[in-house]
Amino acid sequence: MQRLNDILDRRWLSNFGHYVQEFEKKIAEVAGTKHAIACSNGTVALEIASRALELEGEVIVPAFTFIATAHALQWQEIKPVFADVRAFDHNLDPDQIERHITPKTTGILGVHLWGQACDTEAIEAIAKKRNLKVMYDGSHAFGCDAAHGPIGGQGRATVFSFHATKFINAGEGGAVVTNDDELAAKMRLMKNFGFRTYDEVVHVGTNGKMDEFSAAMGLTNLESIDEIVAVNRRNYETYKKELAGIPGIRLMDYRPRGKFNYQYVIAEMDKSCAISRDSLIKVLWAENFLVRKYFWPGCHKMEPYKSLFPNAYLTLPMTEEVGAKILVLPTGQTVDEGVIRKAAEIIRTAVENGQEIEQEIKKRNL
């Protein structure tokens, strides 16, 4: 509230005010990059970055991601070419990239899913060999690291989201980070209609600016980043303890070493489980425990891609498998150990009575 009052006293609400500039500096520090360009949201940041990199034709992207990753390309008439993911971390599989490269391919858009970095070294080795540009969607991965330091310095650019659902949020917002001076200058022009000076437009652009109120929210949340991560990690470890031993359900592990924000707690249900994933969701929702099935059914089965690429699923067996078995469990500062223990109790009971529950759901046509 102190920051909001200060914004009103300054009478500077948007257009690169004090708090946006301060927020950009803090983002760059966390990301380990020279530049951070704050934007109105993560989707606009993806669009600006891909356009600044002059991507065109076809760009390889995982199908198992939020739809905005694909839409940011399609919106600019760039064809997203969907590649499969790895079983153990659900990230883009480098071994699947080469099979999708054509003479029209200009880039690779990797996604750091669940806050765990995709294989940036393998992806960039392929890109170097094939003369492709690389950027990353790091919407899940702010405050996390990759193989050689903070996520942010890999590829030509990385995009973050500060939407209200993210562990560090600006209410609404996003950013592009990069170590490329020329690219950063270009993106700054592009997010402000191409204005270089007060009345001089030198580049095509859009309105992608972050306002001062959003930046104030982001800065305030950043002050608590260590506390938020600690709560997320406590919740993850509590889930892991409480769900242990439930047949057919496994909590997805984080790598043994590394820095993570623990924003996502992902459970995988295998076919041996006595209750189906969708039936378990119905049980938990009935108990007001709002689990989700991300990113079902996959970008390739959403429009317009479902119609444009009706046979894409044939090359995406792991995407199909992962999408059908994961549960995203609630976490964050409003979830405590007692809530998690109660949820685990419901899950355990549902699994133990899976057959009866399935019959009841079918009987009621739920």
Structure, explained:
With 366 residues, the protein is α/β, with parallel strands linked by helices. It folds into 2 domains: 2-222, Aspartate Aminotransferase, domain 2 (3-Layer(aba) Sandwich); 226-364, Aspartate Aminotransferase, domain 1, CATH 3.90.1150. The chain has helices at 2-10, 18-31, 42-52, 67-74, 94-97, 120-130, 181-190, 212-222, 225-243, 277-286, 305-308, 317-323, 337-352, 354-364, and strands at residues 35-39, 58-62, 79-83, 105-111, 133-137, 145-146, 149-150, 157-161, 174-178, 195-197, 200-201, 249-251, 265-269, 326-329. The strands form 4 sheets. It has a 7-stranded mixed β-sheet with strand order 1-9-8-5-4-2-3, with helices on both faces. Strands 12-13-14 form a 3-stranded antiparallel β-sheet, covered by helices on one side. A two-stranded antiparallel ribbon has the order 6-7. The longest helix has 19 residues, at 225-243.
What keyword list fits this structure?
366 residues, alpha/beta, Aspartate Aminotransferase, domain 1, 2 domains, 14 helices, 14 strands
Global outline: globular
Q: Which fold does the CATH topology of the largest domain refer to?
A: Aspartate Aminotransferase, domain 2
* Overall helicity: 25-40%
CATH class of the largest domain: Alpha Beta
In CATH, the homologous superfamily of the largest domain goes by the name: Type I PLP-dependent aspartate aminotransferase-like (Major domain)
**What percentage of amino acids are in beta strands?**
15-25%
Average pLDDT works out at: 96
